[in-house]
Amino acid sequence: MTTPPPVVEARGLHRFFRRGGDEVAALRDVSLAAWAGERVAVRGPSGSGKSTLLMVLACLDAPDAGEVTLDGDVINYRGARDAARFRRRQIGVLTQSSSLIQHLTVGDNVRLAARLRGCGIDVDAALDAVNLQPRRSAWPSELSGGETVRAGLAVALVGTPRLLLADEPTAEVSSAEETELLALLAAVRPATGATVLVTHADAVAAYATRVVQLEAGRIVSTDEPAPS
Ligand SMILES: Nc1ncnc2c1ncn2[C@@H]1O[C@H](COP(=O)(O)OP(=O)(O)OP(=O)(O)O)[C@@H](O)[C@H]1O
Ligand SMILES: [Mg+2]
Q: Is the model's pLDDT at 87 over the cut of 80?
């Protein structure tokens, strides 16, 4: 029996940014894979390249070298349109800042996400999954920090993406709420998908199936070897 390819795999990623006369190496030879059912937490000091890595995995930024595969298909080096189509169908992204459209209710944000992804949706069930059904008619500006994260999660999960990428989604909530949100995030992901989460949360050990440490653009440790 052959092992299925990882849901997402980064091979030898390099990403440089030019700042004034200097060149910043935000990613240096980063390789990482996440298999179905895995929840990989990426940690590291500020400026170590965590957000850059997520942007490249999301196809929202192109690496200067290396490649990203989704279910074995190389997805970077595609044209912008092609990358956007791929991302829309297969990748959910959750960021620290709200990705909600402010002039739509929570329910309509979920409905719009379903339309953009070309899938049907039971809005009540989608909101119920993140304990937010009672807030269906609320405007994004009326939500608490934790509710905002859960609404963003409901939007990111529309269409059950193979890959969920989350960049410090719990940075703005209390640590008790953070623990709850991480448990929710683990509960809502099906075993068929993979999640890569950037976080500083202390609760991360209970959440993640693997922790990867980045420093100055390099992976310096992984708490468990990836399956081969
Ligand atoms: N668009 C850009 N232009 C120039 N430099 C950038 C750009 N994006 C990131 N960088 C630089 O790349 C490095 C990595 O940044 P990145 O945002 O990935 O760090 P991070 O680990 O997410 O940090 P934080 O914990 O503060 O969010 C930093 O030195 C940053 O200044
Ligand atoms: Mg960041």
A: no
- Say what the pTM is: 0.92
The two three-digit tokens of residue 88, written as one number: 């829309």
Ligand 1 within 6 A of CB of 15: no
Q: Which of 3-17, 37-51, 114-128, 194-208 has the lowest mean pLDDT?
A: 194-208
Residues 6+ apart with CB under 8 A from 205: 211
| Mean of pLDDT values over 113-137 | 95
> How many angstroms separate the alpha carbon of residue 89 from the centre of ligand 2?
24
Amino acid letter, residue 84: A
How many Cα neighbours within 13 Å face the side chain of 102?
A: 3
Whether the per-residue pLDDT at 226 is higher than 60: the answer is: no
Ligand 1 within 6 A of CB of 50: yes
Q: What is the pLDDT of residue 200?
A: 82
Is the CA virtual torsion 95, 30, 204, 159 positive or negative?
A: positive
Which ligand 1 atom is nearest residue 27's CA? 14
Mean per-residue pLDDT, 62-82:
84
Radius of gyration from C-alpha coordinates of the chain: 17
- Comparing C-alpha atoms, which of 42, 33, 40, 41 is closest to residue 3? 33
Q: Under CATH, domain 37-62+77-222 is a member of which superfamily?
A: P-loop containing nucleotide triphosphate hydrolases (3.40.50.300)
Q: Is the pLDDT of residue 227 over 70?
A: no
